[in-house]
Amino acid sequence: MERAVHTPVLLEEVISFLDPYQGGVVVDATVGEGGHSLAILERISPKLLVAVDRDIEILSVARERLSDYDNVIFLYGNYSNLPELLAKEGIEQVDAVLMDLGISSFHLEDPERGFSFLEKGPLDMRLDRVGSHLTAFEVVNEYSEKRLAEVIKEYGEEPWAKRIAKRIVEARKEKPLRTTEDLARVVKSAVPKRFWPRRIHVATRTFQAIRIEVNDELTHLKRALKNVVDILSPKGRVVVISFHSLEDRIVKHTFKSFEAKGLGVVLTKKPIVPSDGEIEKNPRARSAKLRVFERSE
Ligand SMILES: C[S@@+](CC[C@H](N)C(=O)[O-])C[C@H]1O[C@@H](n2cnc3c(N)ncnc32)[C@H](O)[C@@H]1O
Q: 166 pLDDT exceeds 90?
């Protein structure tokens, strides 16, 4: 069966925030499979679209998908280094930056990448399999019980973090946890069944936490937002879609701090969320929140 392509989230809303930059320079800092980028190329007609991703494998999917357009450059790299990545191409300022955080269906649906508790795969979870070394296997099998509990609590907001960490450490004494199935089984055994969440899988939060740790996602997000204001042209915008409260909190506070420093204005006093219709068609959109900051003149 052919794999379904990732559905871009809050697409109409993103396009309307980027609409003032017809013919400008736009960065899609998380191009993924290029869903948002394709619509940007069709509807914003930028002079140049810079398509960035930390995952070289997904970047080649985007390259193929957007191959009809010659106004796109593809950059393999981390959005936390955006100014440096752009400088290498001789670009100092851009009109708009889109960041659609997290992972793509492309990652979730490939068991080999180890992101999904629904299918058996190796405990990997790296977005960048070329440049980064820490894997979920190391986090799960080598971190101390205390550190594991902290990671699961902090990045997963998991109330059962201590028990899950304890069970992981007990299980790995017998033999290392090698697969996503091994990890999901241990999480299930740590949380009494009557406390399993109703709307999400019992292992969702633990998997999210370990993925965030493996990819150091919050550090990169903070650094990226801090840097992005420096490359925005006057009246330029940064549009961010986040998928969980830890990310959204960082985006909200950073934008507020920019405003307090007189760097520009937050255009979304409240985050924009998907309509019921969008959630029905694409349940993955459920937790999305979009925030936009516009640089002053
Ligand atoms: C939700 S997907 C983007 C989907 C895309 N907007 C689309 O419509 O197809 C997020 C993408 O961001 C990439 N990514 C995550 N963290 C990154 C980082 N620090 N720097 C660059 N890309 C990153 C992931 O590899 C993934 O491809």
A: yes
Same domain membership, residue 226 and residue 286: yes
Number of structural domains in the chain: 2
Q: Is residue 167 part of a domain?
A: yes
pTM, to two decimals: 0.96
2: pLDDT confidence band, cut at 50, 70 and 90?
A: low
Per the CB < 8 A criterion, the answer to whether 75 and 216 are in contact is no
**In a shared domain, residues 239 and 99:** yes
Q: Are residues 66 and 143 in the same domain?
A: no
How close is the Cα of 120 to the center of ligand 1, in Å? Answer: 23
Residue 120 lies in a domain: yes
State the distance from the centre of ligand 1 to the C-alpha of 51, rounded, in angstroms: 10
Ligand 1 neighbours, Cβ below 6 Å, are 6, 8, 29-30, 32-36, 52-55, 58, 78-80, 100, 102-104, 127, 220
Distances in whole angstroms, Cα of residue 236 to Cα of each of 9, 17, 96, 210: 22, 11, 5, 34
Q: How far apart are CA 233 and CA 230, in angstroms?
A: 8
The answer to the question of residue 128 being in a domain is yes
Residue 3 falls inside a structural domain: no
* pLDDT (tens digit per residue) in 185-220: 999 999 999 999 988 899 999 999 999 999 999 999
Which position has the token pair 């440049």? 131
pLDDT of residue 199: 86
Q: Are 63 and 74 in contact (CB under 8 A)?
A: yes
211 and 126 housed in the same domain: yes
Mutate-to-test residue for ligand 1 from 52, 54, 212, highest number of ligand atoms within 8 A of CB: 54
Tokens of 188: 């299930």
Predicted local distance difference test score (pLDDT) of residue 5: 87
Tens-place pLDDT, residues 257-282? 999 999 999 999 999 999 999 999 99
Q: Which of 23-32, 65-74, 194-203, 237-246 has the lowest mean pLDDT?
A: 194-203
Q: Whose CA is nearest to atom 25 of ligand 1?
A: 55
Q: Which domain holds residue 90?
A: 11-105+217-295
**8 Å CB contact between 50 and 25:** yes
